[in-house]
């Protein structure tokens, strides 16, 4: 819906940039976990997710009149990703340890992403209005979370399950 709004209005007004960026980092992190684990489901889903989030970021940059803050945030998170890649590949030689630490990082990052919309909860309760809450997004987030939990249970993978 955000992408549709940006294209229709040719503006990024009322569209937040940070969710696109953090979701892209989340997808790229889980993609790394999937590659390390050689899990083709994780690889396929997160490759598509990262590609879509990158498309959203590019659209945001295209329609944004103030490109500098978004570019700086993108570069900062790219630097964090590069540092993380260096840490996980160069400083942790053991594959099992690397998988465990990367899985823990991915789980914590994903949990923080799912918790971030709760910041609006106080506003929703005070105003007694759910206007700022997207019902379709809430339902799809619930379904996606449930799917990943069931997939993690099937694989006996605590990090995916969480």
TrEMBL record:
InterPro entries: SWEET (IPR047664), SWEET_rpt (IPR004316). Keywords: Cell membrane, Golgi apparatus, Membrane, Repeat, Sugar transport, Transmembrane, Transmembrane helix, Transport. It is a multi-pass membrane protein. One of its GO terms (cellular component) is plasma membrane. It comes from the Eukaryota. GO terms for molecular function: sugar transmembrane transporter activity. Pfam families: MtN3_slv. It is found in: Cell membrane; Golgi apparatus membrane. The chain crosses the membrane at residues 40-63, 75-93, 99-121, 133-153. The keyword Repressor does not apply. PANTHER family: RAG1-ACTIVATING PROTEIN 1, SUGAR TRANSPORTER SWEET1. Belongs to the SWEET sugar transporter family. Mediates sugar transport across membranes. This is Sugar transporter SWEET1. It comes from Todus mexicanus (Puerto Rican tody). The gene is Slc50a1.
């Amino acid at each position: 819906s955000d992408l549709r709004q940006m294209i229709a209005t040719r503006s990024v007004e009322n569209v937040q940039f940070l969710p696109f960026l953090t979701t892209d980092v989340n997808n790229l992190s889980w993609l790394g976990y999937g590659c390390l684990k050689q899990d083709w489901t994780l690889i396929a889903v997160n490759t598509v997710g990262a590609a879509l989030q990158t498309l959203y970021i590019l659209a945001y940059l295209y329609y944004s009149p103030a490109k500098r803050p978004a570019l700086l945030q993108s570069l900062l998170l790219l630097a964090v990703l590069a540092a993380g890649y260096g840490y996980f590949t160069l400083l942790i030689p053991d594959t099992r340890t690397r998988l465990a630490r990367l899985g823990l990082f991915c789980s914590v990052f994903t949990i923080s992403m799912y918790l971030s919309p709760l910041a609006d909860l106080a506003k929703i309760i005070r105003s007694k209005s759910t206007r700022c809450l997207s019902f379709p997004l809430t339902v799809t987030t619930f379904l996606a979370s449930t799917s990943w939990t069931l997939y993690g249970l099937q694989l006996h993978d605590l990090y995916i399950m969480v």
